[in-house]
Every structure is written in C-alpha cells, then in structure tokens.
Amino acid sequence: MAEIKVHALRKEFGDFVAVQESSFTIEDGEFFVMLGPSGCGKTTTLRMIAGLELPSSGEILLDGEDVTFNRASERDIAFMFQLFALYPHMNVRKNIGFPLKCQGVGGRELRQRVEETAKLLRIDHLLNQPVSRLAGGDRQRVALGRAIIRRPKAFLMDEPLGALDTEFRELMTEELRRLHNRMKATTLYVTHDQLEAMSMADRIMVMNHGVIEQLATPQEIYDRPATRFVADFIGSPAMSFLEFESAIEPGQTSVAVNGAQVQVPALHETREPGPLTLGVRPEHVAFDDSATLRGRIFGTEYLGTTQVVTVDTDHGQIRARISAAHPVSPGETVGMTLRSDRLVVFAGDDGRALASDLYQGGTGAAHG
Amino acid sequence: MSAKRTNAAYSVVEPTTTSKRVAGTLVVLYAIVTMIPLLWIFATGWKSPPDSISYPPKILFEPTAEGHCNLFTTRTRQTDEFIESLGPPRGMCDRITRERNMVIAGESNYFPRFVNSLIIAFGSTFFAVLLGTISAYAFSRFKVPLADDLLFFILSTRMMPPIAVAIPIYLMYREVGLSDTRLGMILLYTAVNVSLAVWLLKGFIDEIPREYEEAAMVDGYTRLQAFWKVVLPQASTGIAATAIFCLIFAWNEYAFAVLLTSGTAQTAPPFIPTIIGEGGMDWPAVGAGTTIFLVPILVFTILLRKHLLRGITFGAVRK
Fold first, then answer.
1. Which of A13, A43, A46, A73 should we substitute to test contact with B (largest number of B Cβ atoms within 10 Å)?
2. Is A310 helix (H, G, I), strand (E, B) or coil?
3. What is the pTM of this model?
4. CA–CA gap between residue A308 and residue A128 (Å, rounded)
5. pLDDT 10s digits, B80-91
6. What are B90-110's pLDDT values in tens digits?
7. Does residue B102 sit in the same domain as residue B72?
8. Global ipTM
9. Which CATH number, 2.20.28.120, 3.40.640.10, 2.30.30.240, 2.40.50.140, labels domain A238-367?
C-alpha cells in the first residue's frame, strides 16, 4: 500500500481547463473521496493518477516514486469503472483472474488466488457463470475482485456504485467500507453522491470547476464548509441561504437580516459594507412564534419522522427540518429561531466563509 | 400491418394473429419470388441441352449430369469408328460424352478459375477487414487530425461506381504489370472494400466502451495487447458482418474481372459466360457452374449467420 502525492496537477483540453493546479496528499491506507458535480474535474484527476490521461503539468508521486508519465500498467494500481468493464467474453473466473494472467501468473497459484478472492467477496458459487447473467451487485463484486486480487498499491474507483439501484448501492457502500477496514488499502474514490461520500470517506475533497473547494473529514465539511459551494453541495436538503448587506467588524456576534438581529458565532474579519450570505442548516431552524425573524410558509415535504418546511422571507427561502407531528399550513406566517453557534456567514463576492469562532480551534460548542 | 382491435385482450406490442399470418404469407411469397431464378438455374444444371432450350420450358425433365460433365471438361467431335475403337467408356462423363459422338479432350478451365475466385475474394476480404479494423479503431479511439475530413474522404471513394475508373486502372495495371495477376485483383478489391469496412467497423468499435481497454491497460496490458485480447473479441460480430459484405462484393464482381483478367488470374464470373458448347451456349454447363459458384458464399454466410443477424441490426438495439 502506498501514499499518493499530487503536486500542482493541471489538465487542459484545448482551451478548457479541466483541473486547475491541484495539490493534495492521500495518506497510506486512507479512504479518500473526491466529490463534486459532473464536470468538476474529479474524474480527470483520477484518470491522471491512474495513467489513463496525461497531465498538462504537475507531478504525481506514488509511494515516493514519480509516476507522472508512466503507463497505467507500470503503476501497480487497480481501477474500478462505473460500468464495471467486465469482459463480456469471459466468465467470472477469467475476469477475476485477468490481472494476474497479465502478470504471467498461471496454473495453481492463479486458481487458488481467484478462489480466495471470490470467497472473500462471497461470489465463489458464481465462478463459472458468464458475467452477462449476473445481477448488478454481483457484477460489482466481480469488478471488485478483479481489483483486489493483485494487491496493488492503491485502488482507484470511478463512481463504482453509480450504475447500481438504490438497494444494492446501500449494501455495497457498507461492503466497500468493511472491505477497506479489513485490507487497509489506499483508496481513491470518485463520486457525485454526497451521501456515499459522507458514509464512506476518511477524508473528502470537494471540487468544483477544476478547483479544490475543501479537503477535510466528512464532519468538518458538513459543520464548517469552507465555501458557499461546499455548504450548498453537502447536506440533504441543502443549507439555506439568506442574502443581506452589511459591514463586518471583528468581534461582531450578530447580523441584521430580514428585520431581525440574528446571533452568529463571533466574527473575526473586517469588511466594508457589501453583500453577504447567512447560511443555516435545516436542522438548526426551530419555529418560535415570538421570534423576530419571520416568514410565510411556502410548503412542506413530508419525510416520515420529520418534515422539511420551506419558508419564504424577503431575503430568500429557509428550509426547516422539524417534527412531522408539528402542524403547518401553507400561507401561515411563522417566526423562526436559528441555532446561533452553527451559523455561517459567507462573503457575497467569492462565496468564502468568513472566519469566526465556529472555524476556530475546531472543537468546542460548535463541534457538538 | 392490419392489427385489428378485437374484443379479446389486446396488446399494443404483441402482433395479432391476423397480422402475423399476413406477415408470414408475405415473407413466404417474397422468398418464393426470389428463389425462382435460383431454382431455375439449379434445374438447368441438371437438364440435357435440348431440354434446357425447349419451348415451352420444361418443369419436369429427366435429370442428367451432362451439364456438370461439360463444365469440367473440353470435348472434341469424333467419328463413330474412332469412338468404337476406344473400348468401353471410363466413367459416367465419358459415357455421356460418347453418346453425343464426342470424346473428352481434357479438363476445362472452370476449376482453376474457381480457385482464382476463392483466393482473390478471400484474400481481398482478409486485407479489407484487417485494414478496416485497424483504421476504424484508430478513428474511434485516438485524436486523428482532420478525422472527420478523412472519414468523409474515405466514404467519398464510394460515391461513384468503381467501374467509372476502370480505364485508368486498366492502363495503370498494364503499366506496372498487375494486369491479369491475382495480386492485382486482391489489391483492387481491397481498395474498393476498405472504405466500407472502415465505416461499418467504426460504428461497431464506437459501441464498445473504452473502459474495457482501459481496465486491461491498468491491469498490465499494453494497448496492442488490449486491442487484441479485449477489443477484437467484442468486435467479432461487426468483423463477421463486414467480412460477409466484402466477400460478397469481391466474389460477385464482374466488370473489373472481365477487363483486367483474361488468363491466369481470371475469376469465375467472367469465365462462366464463356462456356460455349456445340452450336452456342451450353446452358446446362452454365447452370451447373453458377450453382457451384454459389456454394462458398452460402457456406460462409451460414457459418457466420449468428453474427450476421446481430451485425446487420447493429445500433438498433443497445446491449
């Protein structure tokens, strides 16, 4: 297993810059997820690390060795594709054994290792079946088997669960994570699904337009998003944003929004009067008739134990996750209190989160 | 078709019994219409020369191998005394020939012409498919400069009938010594077929996801190995379909063959009409020659039938 170091990696396709200079390090044995909307450069980055795409500039170090321009076959990595890429003209046994065969392993050792791998993934009963007859989850396991049989330095996975239906996806999320805990293999996983990322990752790197927006643990990313993009992308339903204009002084602990003074974590920056955004997660909103922050109920989305109520204010919509038992009627005017220690203020121009007590130190009240 | 609404359970996708029957009848009728000429040729091959040109045409006749004998032999007319002096006839053809007051003088050119056809048609098909596969793969997978223009250029070679360039090719071939050579015919048919092969195969290879090769390359194969072991097996359907199209063209081609071959490299199509018997065309021999000529294509197509059916409808149904 190995550490992957990426330094100032850049990729252009003609005039289009797919990945801006990116630098990050994936620790040995880490489950590292690259997350972002389609076209954000995450797959391109992955393919450059795999050797399927050559970077325009920058370097990639695998276990300290510069592999930037090495062929894919010379990197000792395994790659899992979204469509699994199982060879349709081979059966399960041949598919799993393929990477070993490429290395010239044959005979008994090949047979034994294929069977070992199949047992580990609980597909040993399918070994002689053609891959075309397998269900989605089993295909996934065969693809996984083909990746782990070689015991490579790192696993790269490009949305491997994207083609599965929901049921299998949840199952495989668990299985992948369990397998990772067992093998402690450096894993680089690309997805656009934030739930997948949150539930599996040791660390997440959020990308947008070829730029790394934030690289941190899942909880850090959820609680302390570095930019408005991250805050919006992570969480379901997403964070609500209230646009307002104000100046900021260091030490300021409240902002005026929608005719109310909203308590926020003490801010540490100085800003001229200008556009700002207040970000609040749905679970940090409570209805309180005496509150000064008021809005009209637009609608509600019933989710079983909870409901997500959308409230219109003059500065934007707020979504509140509240108990499903609470009766709401659209059109009604309600007051809301926001959990002040968890609010984030974003700069209006570049979307960066302003420094505040929430971002200081990490632990404390904010870290619940 | 006439899918009439009935009171019984009605499905929009399942054809009704009536429409199935109508469709079936039409297919059978069409098959009969297209089969009649072939059946007629086959029957002519087993008729005697007088039967083959009798009017009204004979549907029922006494079959004879005369046509086949005449196809493979050359004969000379001899006097009865000479024939008497030869002793008993050796084999069936000898006997049939003597009944017509002739003796077998030697073998005809049909067999060598047939072999020429086999070599030239299969040879050119092999090269057209080989070049087509490689170029189609390159167009499909790599950034080829001016790829669209090149593809259009390749297609444009088929926009005029090939025979339009027959005279220049004839002169060129005479100059470089390719006239009446198998190599010359293989080159010519390859050149005509390769554009079809590139276009057909590009479609097939485009449909094979790149991930297969990429997976193989990550797993330790070079691109060439990945192409050979992963892409080719999956393109087998397309390759088979393309090969059949190329083979049919090269096998049946007549105009160039007449113009460019006359002796050693002559193929069967220009040879068959030259079979002349006593007092004009020997129709039973022509019928026999044509029937035998159809066999290789028939066998090849039956062997690849499974691929062909999937190949012709390619793109219609995604895997």
1. A73
2. strand
3. 0.76
4. 49
5. 888 888 888 888
6. 888 888 888 888 888 888 889
7. yes
8. 0.75
9. 2.40.50.140
